[in-house]
Amino acid sequence: MKKLYLIRHAKSNWSNSVISDIDRPLNKRGERDAPFMARLIKEKGIEPDLVLSSPAKRSFDTAVIFAKTYGKDKKDVIIKDRIYEAGMRELSLVVENIDDGFDSVFLFGHNPGLTNFANLVGSEYLDNMPTCSIVGIRFDINSWKNVERGEGKTFLFEYPKKYF
Asked: What mean pLDDT comes out for the span 48-56?
């Protein structure tokens, strides 16, 4: 069994128009929401074997906050360039190439790709994954190469506005 947790980056800062999209940092709400959401799912007994992130600062910083909550280090977050601005096909390729030794994977990225991918492989339709939301999808497979359309069971959907 494989479990994939799609996690949209926390809220980012748009106040400086000179900063490129990939370099945008988290804003104050993002800095509040990320540790809260990390603690929330840790308390549910969810543990990652692998943490993957887009190279975008807002995504990587969110991933690092989650990693630290789990006692991991910044170096434990693996950057996958393909996740930045990824659509469903690119995300499928990222997932298909995960080493089968990992059963529980956190993947930090962006919309609309994450929402579309969750809808492609999961069992429940989502209108939108808000910032810092987490969708958990379980697959009754032994290899990540076998993740296919509609084969996953969506079992978790958490987001900050449920709590704030």
From this structure: 98
